[in-house]
Amino acid sequence: MSGISSFNEGDKVNQFVLIKSVTKGTTSTGKPFLTLILQDRTGEIDAKLWDCSEQDIVDYAADKIVKIHGEITLYRGKKQLRLHAIRLTNEQDNIKKSSLIMSAPVSIEDMVESITKYVFEIKNPNLQRLTRALLKKHHEAFFEFPAAVRNHHEFMSGLAYHVVSMLKLAESVAKLYPSLDTDLLYSGIILHDMGKVIELSGPTATSYTLEGKLLGHITIMVNEIGDMARQLELDGEELVILQHIVLSHHSKPEWGSPKPPLIKEAEIIHMLDNLDAKMNMMDRALEKVKPGEFTERLFALDQRALYRPKTISISSQMQPERN
Amino acid sequence: MSGISSFNEGDKVNQFVLIKSVTKGTTSTGKPFLTLILQDRTGEIDAKLWDCSEQDIVDYAADKIVKIHGEITLYRGKKQLRLHAIRLTNEQDNIKKSSLIMSAPVSIEDMVESITKYVFEIKNPNLQRLTRALLKKHHEAFFEFPAAVRNHHEFMSGLAYHVVSMLKLAESVAKLYPSLDTDLLYSGIILHDMGKVIELSGPTATSYTLEGKLLGHITIMVNEIGDMARQLELDGEELVILQHIVLSHHSKPEWGSPKPPLIKEAEIIHMLDNLDAKMNMMDRALEKVKPGEFTERLFALDQRALYRPKTISISSQMQPERN
Amino acid sequence: MSGISSFNEGDKVNQFVLIKSVTKGTTSTGKPFLTLILQDRTGEIDAKLWDCSEQDIVDYAADKIVKIHGEITLYRGKKQLRLHAIRLTNEQDNIKKSSLIMSAPVSIEDMVESITKYVFEIKNPNLQRLTRALLKKHHEAFFEFPAAVRNHHEFMSGLAYHVVSMLKLAESVAKLYPSLDTDLLYSGIILHDMGKVIELSGPTATSYTLEGKLLGHITIMVNEIGDMARQLELDGEELVILQHIVLSHHSKPEWGSPKPPLIKEAEIIHMLDNLDAKMNMMDRALEKVKPGEFTERLFALDQRALYRPKTISISSQMQPERN
Amino acid sequence: MSGISSFNEGDKVNQFVLIKSVTKGTTSTGKPFLTLILQDRTGEIDAKLWDCSEQDIVDYAADKIVKIHGEITLYRGKKQLRLHAIRLTNEQDNIKKSSLIMSAPVSIEDMVESITKYVFEIKNPNLQRLTRALLKKHHEAFFEFPAAVRNHHEFMSGLAYHVVSMLKLAESVAKLYPSLDTDLLYSGIILHDMGKVIELSGPTATSYTLEGKLLGHITIMVNEIGDMARQLELDGEELVILQHIVLSHHSKPEWGSPKPPLIKEAEIIHMLDNLDAKMNMMDRALEKVKPGEFTERLFALDQRALYRPKTISISSQMQPERN
Amino acid sequence: MSGISSFNEGDKVNQFVLIKSVTKGTTSTGKPFLTLILQDRTGEIDAKLWDCSEQDIVDYAADKIVKIHGEITLYRGKKQLRLHAIRLTNEQDNIKKSSLIMSAPVSIEDMVESITKYVFEIKNPNLQRLTRALLKKHHEAFFEFPAAVRNHHEFMSGLAYHVVSMLKLAESVAKLYPSLDTDLLYSGIILHDMGKVIELSGPTATSYTLEGKLLGHITIMVNEIGDMARQLELDGEELVILQHIVLSHHSKPEWGSPKPPLIKEAEIIHMLDNLDAKMNMMDRALEKVKPGEFTERLFALDQRALYRPKTISISSQMQPERN
Amino acid sequence: MSGISSFNEGDKVNQFVLIKSVTKGTTSTGKPFLTLILQDRTGEIDAKLWDCSEQDIVDYAADKIVKIHGEITLYRGKKQLRLHAIRLTNEQDNIKKSSLIMSAPVSIEDMVESITKYVFEIKNPNLQRLTRALLKKHHEAFFEFPAAVRNHHEFMSGLAYHVVSMLKLAESVAKLYPSLDTDLLYSGIILHDMGKVIELSGPTATSYTLEGKLLGHITIMVNEIGDMARQLELDGEELVILQHIVLSHHSKPEWGSPKPPLIKEAEIIHMLDNLDAKMNMMDRALEKVKPGEFTERLFALDQRALYRPKTISISSQMQPERN
């Protein structure tokens, strides 16, 4: 696929991009310039707009679509776009924002269908009713939000995509270990990260809300479960257990869970969450390098640089599903 | 004050005590015996009841009051009661359980009055209404529960006593640092540990409930605030801040707070909580030793053994208020 | 299933057991006694043999089968057997050691077949030849040894049982994430713990060998791979990668891996190893308690005590396969 | 108050400032330039002097007062002064260094008076004589030095200001907890940081001395107490305790105290020190942002960014006392 | 050498020993008994004196010499003496305390001579005068005290023996690395642990003094150097450096040094201290086991159990010098 | 010695240097430039080549020798070379690469002789044969490779130089502690870091190989020992011990040793390794500063900045041997 992620030093660029963020600066000689982060659905790149006018500062704001013309250079080992020309889109361009945003490799409709299937398999009536009610309450955001601001599944619909992957994993694992309770697994997985629809600001240009910063998605979601249970007048030990599963899914206090998993299914959900998140991070880092090379150091993998073997073909996780 | 805490090796004992807990054991030769933890309002002591009958096992259960006769011995450096005789109380004894339980050095009435005074000083209407409503909902338990199972304020009404001490401290500190917001301080202090009325089982023979073990008092109380705000239809940033104060009052993830204090008053409440708890632990440990001696190692003070100076008189914190 | 694991306080016992270990002691009055750890295929229990004769000390040695008669008592909250009578087995008893040893819930033949199937699916000829050669070299021990001295899969054939479970898991996971290389997964899983056949002393009464203590199973196995590759005159990057997978499968230096996983499949093998081990530990701890109870604190799960929910039925992992 | 701390991007600047420090550099084209840190009593700002002459390098040295003319720009998100003109002060300017230095919000005379009052309340004659003698020995520096090079109370007379605040806090706390010994509290607080008059180089342009780097203020002060006690021929357990209070006031080895507090008053002094230091840091960080904003990340508060609530007015700690 | 360290289970014992410490206990049936720690110059052993009389309690106190008759038994895997008879020594026995105390393998005279030689090699007059003066001030204790209460060199004259070993090591190392300053090495080594003569209570039955507990030998010795320098009216950077060497010789804050070594010779002294201490610990632990065995877990070596190789002869460090 | 290490700001430079590494960059205005790291035998320095041509990029590659003409400037406190002219060497220049590379202060012949001497002193035939065979196998690389990429002994022949220093140290220490086994010490020291000849890429422009990154020199060398023992058909406990010594010489898991030293000689080798490495680092850092100054912060010494005393002469470790 062509686009930002496939640019190499020296390439000429001529395409539409979305401005993800803008920072204004001043050169040492006092002239204003803009640092733009530009994105298309394959990735993002930095660009400087030197000697910019007052009008430029107004025009080239975050979330605007622009046509750019320029060349790829290297700055401190990182690719950068040297701008030769930039202009705003107009109607004739007929370009849509959605075509410039990275999003999950499956459609929202397919994910709704998948999740609905698992909800129906929850046999405990309390757990099923609660999960359905919360899915309904946050339906739109749940299927559009990313799973994070960075690190893993930080693309549109990333949250739902991550949940669908975990549900499939859980189904496979439960077949191998029949002592696992699938009601707790499925309801726990669907709800574990749903608090992000309140913790984060939205599906694009995502940042943390005040509630996100002061309470965090775990605390927010434990509250949502408690509140919804009272509204639906549900009662029973399984509701406290479900709150516990959400509360403990980061596993350790220093990772944000004040209680470690004390229920078997809580421990398993933590592990599957970790597995799916790491798989996503590793695949995306390895796609960017050639066989025989190491990736850049990955913050969320303890600064490890992974090696992509020469002799063994790695096909992208996402490609098969993209078509 | 005479009683268990003042016993020395060799003392003869003849008094009423409350059975705090009982464990059944078997000697190496196969005979049953009971290990009793006995308490009066000054402290507790272990005792063994050897060669006990089936009836003894029925009679001498937790929460029963008994008359004992025996002698104090040392076992591995710890005082123990050697029982010569034991019997259940009867009506003629006319002994009340409350006279055998350690409790706060001020009356419940006085504490209700103190806390009410601080509630009235909360000027923000949302914070005042919410604090009053939650105090009312949990009134009885709040004034009877201990603040903990062990370590500090683990006596009847210890929770309210701890809150009153912190409120007085906060009032003093706010006078010295006028930038502090007393509305947040007072409402935060009153609510910070209120979740213990659900986390713990009751005012005596206290243990952890299932909710206490799976969610913890911090998460429980953040939920209670959210729920009550919705019931009262209150809204505003200060309610999220109040939840944050409760959430962060243990200061660090590894101490149970998923978010560290991000509001100045949250940081101060954490510090005052710590100061009052440590003062209580230190005073009680130092009361048990003579000037020129070290206390036993104190678990909650990082295993430190404190020194009680010779030349400097330490009067008990509690004595002045007891009269 | 009746047997040691199902004993309760007060039960009369009359059965054959295997002596797992013996320690000689002396009472405070100078008389010798034996502390025996006795086992059958369901579990183990401590027993004291008081006033034992010189002959008793000779007779009741580790790995001997004895008939015992006694009663279950509680000592410091732990079940203990009070011996009324003990004798060595004789020919008429017709009791076999294998009937008293806990072992994997599937037969060795079935495990050989499973593993052979996965070996055949390894397409890279170097990896397949090497894996076959090492399986052949250590065949007998590999299918009889436990996976550990304690904590998880510490029963006869535990090593192979653990490997089979991981292979099945890997197959499921690779279906969901097609970018995974199954050659590396299958060869890595089969070899990752094979060094235990040198680190440990044998299938029963297992302890650590000198090589186990000074080098450890990870270093031992990396050597075995290097040595076998030279013997078979194999060469190629994938052999270094396979050594790396074994070297890094404990993930962190402080857990015994001098290099962290730097290959995607190495990271996944670490996670599946962890998942299968914890599942085994959790299932066995939860089987010992009733719904609504907490397990004892589990050392290998960071001292957590797990809760077994009331409302949700947990069937044993092993039962379905035992029939 | 106008001055450096209130500058915004684009502001024209024309005022006197003190040069806090200077670093000489060379541009990539080989021309010399100066990086100046300029301060007035409200704050500090960086400025570059490009194309500077040999004379400029001589003139614009640390601790010189200059008149500057320029404009505020942003460089990597940080305010910087772009210099249009700079000159040294002359007599006609009639500007005093003290008017350009940030200092405590109360006068030295008032602080001398406050501390003298607390010295008189020390009843133990050894502690009083020793405290007076050390205050006399280091009088001038004690009332002029900052409490630190950065982080908290890093302004002129910051050391004494911090001590006065702690003494007032200690007085309040001792009223609430009458078991505290005020003699130890007052003498310990006055002396705890006095070693900084040897550890640091002076009241302005403060850096660490060789003794400061090799021994540190805690070790220096414990020595000073021991030495003065011998000069005054004082003797008694309370002198060792006072040395212990100074030694342990950072609480943990990793924070610089080889012994943790083993005396109740030592623990309390540590806590009050911490409370006053954090209050100072938090107030100064919050003053720089508007309600509804977060502060920058604060190094000395574990990199936390604090939130300044919208609805709650925060008045500066210092304003009330400044008048 | 015969004596306590060479006893095996079942041995009959009949010899003089020194009572190192006594603890009084009471049996569960209320009878008093004594737990004695008995020592001779080869080691120590526990013994119980059952059914002891009032006179026994008076007679068998710490530091008394007694003749014992008994037998070695095993209790929880540890050797213990079962007493058949015990009596106090009388004049006819003609037994001296010094013959029952473990002490350094070289005489005090030899150690005085060794250390004097190194003092004369210190060329810097300030360092030499200071070192001589402090050696003179603490002469007697310095050559009699142990280096510690436990772990290493915890025998009579252990402190001086440890210093002599380190001086010899330093001399060898300085020959290989001529950039090392021997003046700092020799004076630093002689003084580094001298504070132990104040930190510890005496050469036998050693415990910590109040100054030891509240200040520690490092702080004590830094004070001693400062004080002596002032008495001798010495001045110069090298005195601060010498204090720094003592202050930093435990290397890390969590090991008791508030400053890490910032001088090359300080770092080397830390390393030689560590090397000599570990060599002493390892030799003594390995002497107690046979070739092919592991030692017990050694607390001061991070709980490691060391292996004594079969094929390689280990001769005791001390034997050559003992003759 | 003149050369790069003795340059000061403002110096004119005109000499031959070796290009250690090159990075290509682009200025903000889009023009290519080269960042060169240049070295001679005394040190290295950065230089920028602005406005470079296509030919320049081809010519000035790593490992090329060039004649440079320029001037020393300061950039962010670090010395940098401003290039006035640069050209490749030609035959007439008659300059050898070896004259521009820093290498050990003794000749390879001398080091071969030293190490051979110690090999002959190994009395155990297995250890001697194995050590000789491995020295022979890796002879050339062993005497040319550095000991590391940075931090200590990162110069040509640094590996052998480090081994010779440790052998001399071990000989001295074994004289003072006769219980040490010199066979284990000498063979262990010679082999401990030999795996670096496979972990690193070569004697100059050194980087890590794939085996180095995935396995590390410790694992590689343990394999080499096992493999050579099998080739030589050697057998015996001492070979496992030798592998253990290599495996454990980094002492702690987090420093790369999966097993801590469990043999006395392993512990001593770890300590001598540490001592020689730190001595090398400290000497080289101190040589760069004047008496009375602190060095830069040293990464491998926990970021400490060391002080070079004024009054005490520090002669370079290397000078005496250089002549």
TrEMBL record, chains A, B, C, D, E, F:
Cleavable signal peptide: none
Domain HD: residue ranges: 162-278
Gene3D superfamilies: Hypothetical protein af1432, Nucleic acid-binding proteins
PROSITE patterns named among the record's database cross-references: HD
One Pfam family it belongs to: tRNA_anti-codon
Alphabetically ordered keywords of this record: Exonuclease, Hydrolase, Nuclease
GO BP term (any one): rRNA 3'-end processing
Gene Ontology molecular function: any one: nucleic acid binding
UniProt entry tagged with the keyword Plastid: no
NCBIfam families in the cross-refs: PRK13480.1 (NF010007)
PANTHER family: 3'-5' EXORIBONUCLEASE YHAM
The protein's name: 3'-5' exoribonuclease YhaM
